Fold:
Amino acid sequence: MSKVYFASSRIKKWKYADSMPGKLERLLKEINLSHYFEKNEWIAVKTHFGSEGAHRIVRPVFLRKVVDSLKGIGAKPFVTDTVRIKGLDYLEVANQNGINHLSVGVPVVLADGLYGNDNIVVKAGEILGEIAVATLIYDVQAMIVCSHVKGHIQAGYGGAIKNVAMGGVSSSHRHCGWKCGRGAMHTIGEGRLIWDEEKCELCYQCQEICPLEAIKFEDELFSYNEDDCWRCGRCTRVCPSGALTLPGDEERFVRSLAEAAKAVLSSFKPGKVLYINFLTEIQPECDCMPSADVPVIQDQGILISEDIVSIEQATIDMLLKAKPLPQSAMDELRSETDDILFYLSRKPYKLQIEEAERLGLGSKIYELIEI
Structure:
């Protein structure tokens, strides 16, 4: 049975040790980082840099506590993520969201290079076949995965598995393009965007949100550069009239997350990856979108474990017990179910945890230890 350590967001004493940063320090001491990592060992602190407008990420103060704790055992950490938009722009987004070398105390780098195509193709299983894992994550010997827990319009739930699967994989590869990048999870077949002219309202939101400026409208006709497109699906998610679609399979997508996560983790020896889930500012959508809605449930706390399946199951168990916050998307919609995440997305999000367990990444049976 795997251990999952937990610190609640509730503060009952007005002293630093009971603050969230203070509790994170205690969690890191409790799990004993020196048991996993060695002096002078390079360690990737994997997080999500957010987007311009999406600010509900793992706050820099928490990343700094992780970094300082690793420095305390003599390790050499750095903070990283893979390219979501053009590399230099993404580093500037990270800076705007407060993640830089001054705030976190170590270098902030892109795991797959400025162009997002510095990666290694790794075998990934029956759904994906192979996937392009970011070279830096593939090469580094140890990692701490810091995940902001939230909903997700496609996955239904985004935590450690999604952070590893989509955050450890590049958007594209030099030769096989999106078909062995994270776009392979988003779509099936040829993955061509389908535009319905009759439904289109010409709002141009799809053009505005494209991270690669691949979408154009000339004489009110839609077109896009198929070679440049990463198949991220942002354009289809923001289309208010359903005029844009990207062929996909919900169950296949959710299961492929577990498969990609296994591929990303395949280069690490046992016991060299830790997972920290931040159940804070739990909004209904991914941090890669250009805005952040109000949280749908109250902050729950911080979880840490060496078992990615256990920490995800513990997270889901906590979220399902929580009440929806007033004036949130969940409060507006709640009437049919107590499953907040499913009601927001209508996606089979639990399959990613079940598939991860089936693939041998961990166990859903856990012991919760609260500090």
Observations:
- The longest strand covers residues 2-8.
- The chain has a mean pLDDT of 93.
- The first helix runs from residue 20 to 31.
